[in-house]
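Why do we care about 3D structure at all? Because function follows from shape, and shape follows, mostly, from sequence. That is the central idea of this module. The next example makes it concrete: a single protein chain, its amino acid sequence, and then its structure expressed as tokens.
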Amino acid sequence: MIALIVLNYNDWETTSSFINSIRDYRSIGKIVVVDNCSSDNSYDKLNALCSERIDVIRTSENRGYAAGNN
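And the structure:
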């Protein structure tokens, strides 16, 4: 199974659009959206994408790109 991690920071619209464009790809078994402690309402907006194949999580602090992906 292929899993995809998508990091978001204060840009839920672009992230949501991207997820909606790939959500039905059969080659991707799981999509994990990580909201990197956005200061806007990204986490709440992205939670609407949750499904059996899509998880949305939020970091407790923004420690940069690498830490957000880890």
